């Protein structure tokens, strides 16, 4: 979706990141192939999948532990956001902590 937003901004003449900063999720290969390159949040999908098996166990009716799992993330700063394009972190930077919650019904 973020890549599509970049293309639409370009079509409409919106300057990135001066007028609009865009950040995506998943760090797909296309993120570095477009101009401006897309800033993304990257997570370890393999690790997330390992922990996701607990959800599948619960859906199958098996006993599974109740716990909060933090798989971590990496912010890949590129030119679609102001900080990366200007070489600094703006005062509007917000820290986030993505967490995978596993909860039984």
UniProtKB/TrEMBL annotation:
Q: Which terms in the Gene Ontology molecular function aspect does this entry carry?
A: DNA-binding transcription factor activity; transcription cis-regulatory region binding
Sorted alphabetically, which SUPFAM superfamilies does this protein's record hold?
Answer: Periplasmic binding protein-like I (SSF53822)
Keyword check for Coiled coil: no
Which residue numbers delimit the Transcriptional regulator LacI/GalR-like sensor domain?
1-81
- Show the Pfam families listed in the entry: Peripla_BP_3
Query: Can the keyword Transcription regulation be found in this entry's annotation?
Result: yes
What keywords tag this UniProt record? DNA-binding, Plasmid, Transcription, Transcription regulation
What protein name does the entry list? Transcriptional regulator LacI/GalR-like sensor domain-containing protein
Annotated source species: Bosea vaviloviae
């Amino acid at each position: 979706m973020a890549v599509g937003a970049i293309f639409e901004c370009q079509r409409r003449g919106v300057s990135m990141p001066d007028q609009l900063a865009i950040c995506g999720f998943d760090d797909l290969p296309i993120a570095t192939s477009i101009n401006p390159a897309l800033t993304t949040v990257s997570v370890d999908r393999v690790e997330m999948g390992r922990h996701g098996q607990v959800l599948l166990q619960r859906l199958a009716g098996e006993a599974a532990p109740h716990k909060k799992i933090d798989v971590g993330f990496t912010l890949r700063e590129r030119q679609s956001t102001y900080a990366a394009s200007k070489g600094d972190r703006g005062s509007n930077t917000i820290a986030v902590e993505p967490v995978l919650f596993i909860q039984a019904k």
